[in-house]
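On to our target:
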Amino acid sequence: MAEGSMSPSEMVRQWAEGNARWVAGTQLVPEVHVLPLVAAMPTGWWGEGLPEGLSIAPDMAALLGAIRLDGYLAYDEAALTALGSDVGPARTLVLVDGAVLGARGPGLVSRFVEEGGTLLAFGHASLLDEAGAARPEYPLADVFGAGYGGLVQFDTEASRVVLTADTTYAAQFSPPNVIDGRADTFWASIEAGPMPHWVQLDFGKPRTAGSAQVSCRPAFLLKDFDVQAKVGEEWQTLAGVKDNKEWVIDCPFAQPIEAQSFRLFITREELNGENRVIADVGEFTLLDEKGGRLIPPPYLIEGRISDKAWAEANRSDRLVLRSPAVRLKPTKAKVIATFPDPLTGDPLPLCTVNKVGKGHAYLFAVPEAAFGYAPETWEALFRTFVGMPMVRHSGDENVVAFLRRGKGKAILHVIDTAPVETPERAKEVIVRADTKALGRAKAVKTLPEGTAVRTSLREAWVQFTLPIGPMGTVMMELAR
């Protein structure tokens, strides 16, 4: 948006002030309320010793951006403020991990769900009071149909394993990076030393391994290397790889072996087709006889989705998240996704759902940050638990939509927040309105001109093309 220009919400407000006859009896509709943070999260909220670089703090801008890019109307800070007298007319309320509920908040949320709203809550949602102090139990336990059982204790074996290497290039490329489960950290040897180079894992006690998997650092291809185990005082080669061309290499052993120390012994690496004297490794993963990790990365959650609709939207019934988690204690809620307890292997709830009146409350054991902020991830969640958005448009990330709704009509504003004065840039978008979520549009016309807009019905959608420059406005007459 150009400096000095109006924000989208200001444009809509100004338009409404000048077109009172059209907006009379309508109300601005955010489909999704996101209850923001209004107090600092307590120190030690997720316990001590979190891995460096593990982000669990809410990113409100990224979350709202991901939701909006999926077509849901979550667009304006003013419409997404902390709970006031009501949370309607939104279809969905999102309580992030650090969301604060005041004294009246639980009652308002409960009424919202009872009247047909969908609640998505994450981690500690609602445990903070207005002063930022943690409560011992969810104030929304009855709505969630689940209680708060404290933090899940994760396997800390990764911190007990001793990792060494022949050399290390710099502190940020240290050997522990090869077992941290992250795609953006690596071990690298020093530049001056010639091949071979090695990185070694010592468990402190014998462990049985049946295979290994090696991940290269992007662009740095490991060509020749051996996976070895220390048997007595000698290093025994378990798998040898020559002239490798893959970035992730499976290394099966001829038979399982019990040893205390294992290492990756590297004799050749390429960068852009040229041999180099430095060795780089992304991950060195040892697997047991059944293919399970001998060293689970800290806070790795391998979820299993039992809800068929969610699994289909997610394109898999598996869900891998790198995050800490809280222990949920279902009372009335149904468990629709689980993950194994890191210490015992017993299934723990990853997500629960509770029907309250006409609505549903979903509670996730992890913070929303665990899901990241890719639009497709949130699309899978919202399409499954909320339904289709009321309107979608073909514009890019700079195009936002505002909707006003009243009896028998809806007014839609579509705004280009980054207009470029070039003839190559299209100044129109295709709009699709979901007839089930919004209602069937009998007629569509531009405002304030009143020009009829040609529409086409495609299954459950009414579709039309809307010019924007930088804003386009239409009124849809809805069938009762």
